[in-house]
Amino acid sequence: MLFPDYRPRRLRASEGLRRMIRETQLSPDDLILPLFAVGGRSVKNPIGALPGQFQYSVDNLVAPAREAFAAGIPAVILFGIPERKDPLGTSAYAKDGIVQKAVRALKNKLPELVVITDVCLCQYTDHGHCGVVEGNRVQNDASLELLARTALSHAAAGADMVAPSDMMDGRVAEIRDMLDENGFSHTPIMAYSAKYCSAYYGPFREAADSAPKFGDRRTYQMDPANALEAVREVTLDIEEGADIVMVKPALAYLDIICRVRQEIDLPLAAYNVSGEYAMIKAAAKMGWLDETDVMLESLTAIKRAGADMILTYFATKAARAVA
User: Is 213 noted as a catalytic residue in this protein?
Assistant: First the structure.
């Protein structure tokens, strides 16, 4: 049998050779760790659907953030679970809100850590939707000021970046205007731009106590069947002032990450969401796969598709594995 002059296996013969020609390199710099903050003191509540993840009171939150930073991870993103909920989610933009307290604590103890805050109302409203509800409808325009006030309160507390995840039309522009008018023109926005209405979010709703009390989020989060719409959503957010755009979820939407990467030149984030994490943890617990190998393969695939940064509950473990 005649072989071509080029034999691909020549450069796969040793780990050293494979490292030399590796096209995609996963680094701790690529990772962002999500953290959940709750009220009280000395709280570390395990999240059943997210093995290895916890709800932390503010006094306990610094430890996992410090651990991540020591592993080389540059940033965390904060989600808050308030003690009180109401129809307008007032705890979301309260000066003494749970996220605001958490931001101040982290920036006090770890000033070099980039602290990003999730900007949404669903954890703070008694109906569990991401905006103002009238009847059974989520009101887009009435929600914008509250979202902007939330972002402003996070920036005032010391957040390095705000990340609106609500998917209301026009919220990036409203937040940008609110920040600029109040002396925070330097605060960047990471927009959840192509956020799909996904079944992969299930474990997160336990972690953040954010499940809607009626209906679903299909009127504002994207239809999983749509790809062109993702490009339109991303483009709108860029026009409104987003500094970083995001695709969420990640693994089931690698084609969307790739498509968006080809269309835009802004930094692109992808969220390796709770369901993606939980499936790997569950299969590993059953002995059906190797957790570390599948974790690294999955995160590498997200980066290979075009993501510049990855939000993942695996962040600290992955950072140590690739160091």
Answer: no
